[in-house]
TrEMBL record:
InterPro entries reported in the protein's UniProt record: LeuE-type (IPR001123)
Tagged with keyword Cell membrane: yes
Species whose genome carries this gene: Acinetobacter calcoaceticus ANC 3811
Annotated signal sequence range: none
Cellular component terms (Gene Ontology): plasma membrane
UniProt keyword annotations, A-Z: Cell membrane, Membrane, Transmembrane, Transmembrane helix
Organism lineage: Bacteria, Pseudomonadati, Pseudomonadota, Gammaproteobacteria, Moraxellales
Protein name in UniProt: Homoserine/Threonine efflux protein
Superkingdom to which the source organism belongs: Bacteria
GO molecular function per UniProt: amino acid transmembrane transporter activity
Main location as per UniProt: membrane
Topology term for the membrane: Multi-pass membrane protein
Subcellular location as annotated: Cell membrane
Residues spanning the membrane: 17-41, 47-68, 89-115, 127-147, 159-183
Keyword Flavoprotein part of the UniProt annotation: no
């Protein structure tokens, strides 16, 4: 998401849409592989899934703390184009998405909460993947079309500082709610 926002702040709409398409394909592939892995592992040991889930929750909490302690006062929005061609925008977006461990950890910590082992697990994961991709796409569109409008705000150190505090607090509260759900 930050990549899409950065691209929007430094490039035109077409390059940003191409970058977002690469990101979306990468996210789709990542979560599909992650869900297939979870499907396979859920047949092996439920304790393993609970441990992986706990690891994801701890990671979310740590990410929240990092955002709360983040020192930078502004986002990087360099106007130089390091990608040059449209294919490079797509490829770069794709590789950024598939190499992002946060997406995988989010899926591992979040998706198992919604799986009913007594129903078709494959169809449940398919619905979760579809829902996640639609949400991801929607947020990318918001970042793309809103990026130009909030460019002035993001340059203000106070806004960026507050933005990080809000995101950090959200991650911490989300991890606490996940841990409380897993204890019930």
């Amino acid at each position: 998401m930050v990549f899409v926002l950065n691209t929007r702040l430094s490039q035109n709409l077409k390059e940003t849409l191409i970058s977002a398409s690469g990101c979306l394909l990468g996210v789709l592939m990542s979560i599909t592989v992650c869900c297939i892995t979870l499907l396979f592992l859920s047949n092996l040991q439920t304790i393993f899934i609970k441990l992986v889930n706990l690891f994801g929750i701890i990671y979310l909490f740590i990410m929240g703390i990092k955002h709360l302690k983040y020192k930078s006062k502004q986002i990087n929005h360099d106007n130089s184009s390091e990608y040059k061609t449209r294919e490079n925008f797509f490829i770069n977006g794709f590789f950024i998405a598939i190499s992002n461990p946060k997406t995988l950890l989010f899926i591992i910590s979040f998706f198992p909460q919604f799986i009913n082992p007594n129903s078709s697990i494959l169809s449940q994961y398919s619905i979760l993947i579809f829902t996640f991709v639609v949400c991801e796409f929607s947020w990318m569109l918001i970042y793309i079309w809103g990026g130009e409008k909030i460019k002035v705000l993001i340059k203000k150190p106070k806004f960026f500082y507050l933005f990080n505090k809000i995101i950090g607090t959200f991650f911490i509260l989300f991890s606490i709610s996940l841990i409380s759900l897993s204890l019930t």
